[in-house]
């Protein structure tokens, strides 16, 4: 692209480094910002800079937080003895949005993926084992994606945790609510028949 | 969404104000930035702030520029007597990318659009007329989109400029290179037959 301004080129270059943003989209976003009030644009820029500079990770669960210990880990309505293990902060948000879970979390910071060179030592797995070993825990829920990496991580975590003699559970797999049987893949449908549940427990309360 | 951090919420909020960016995309972009080096993120934020603060518009053609007069208007290889009138800076880039045009530009800053409350006085039309009246001009090329607003603006500009007795041209409309006749709309195809050109002039040199 032929930019008429170095400043413009710079800003477009920065935006197009973002995932899924090409040069044309970047240009559209930058021109949109140019039409905004200077104050608004400064707020935008500063929000990004401050985020990166001041953000903390919870010392206990490793979730993104403004404090050294996050609000969930300090919340007095949360059951600290149930730990839900998730991949990243997006999964914490997803579970929180359901309003169905009142325990605490443990954010791994990724999944084991030999293809991407991510091994157990790159994730917060030792600190999870430490947590289970040193604090009273009555259940560990493994809420990981149903992918190859998720399953690998699941299996590894199970191996590391099984000797503690506490219940280790995973979230239920099956046909989604609103899902039609004829479009379900055969593995999901097959497992959902094998792991069928009594009708009473399937009702949403 | 349940954010575990005010800083995170702020940054996601700012990103999701951008056109075409929803909350989920905003979150993905922000988490991507969180994984970057602090220096890189600061550069990103500052590029945006500086852009809005320091950007100028060329005093002659109103294109975005780092200087009071843009590089095209000061370029000594450009024919200052041919003015290409375009809607915005994106169109300047598009024409520049063709490497087929060596005149100068005039950026209107939009198109006449009564539906959006944009009238001739909101655009740099008076300054175009002024330019034509006070500097030697041998051709005005109207390179506007082939939309309702583009045609309205075209007609208005033609009315304002026709008394200066200089050639006023518009860019050619027709079937795009690589375009198949059977998929062309009838108006374009019809006009392209009516405004047919000698074979020799249709060859790309």
From TrEMBL, chains A, B:
Domain of life: Bacteria
GO biological process, one term: DNA repair
Chain ranges of the Toprim domain: 81-176
Keyword flag Oxidoreductase: no
Keywords: DNA damage, DNA recombination, DNA repair, Metal-binding, Zinc, Zinc-finger
GO molecular function: DNA binding; zinc ion binding
Zinc finger (C4-type): 58-73
NCBIfam families the record matches: recR (TIGR00615)
HAMAP family assigned to the protein according to its UniProt record, in alphabetical order: RecR
Annotated PANTHER family: RECOMBINATION PROTEIN RECR (PTHR30446:SF0)
Entry's family note: Belongs to the RecR family.
Job of this protein: May play a role in DNA repair. It seems to be involved in an RecBC-independent recombinational process of DNA repair. It may act with RecF and RecO.
Name of this chain's protein: Recombination protein RecR
Annotated source species: Pedobacter psychroterrae
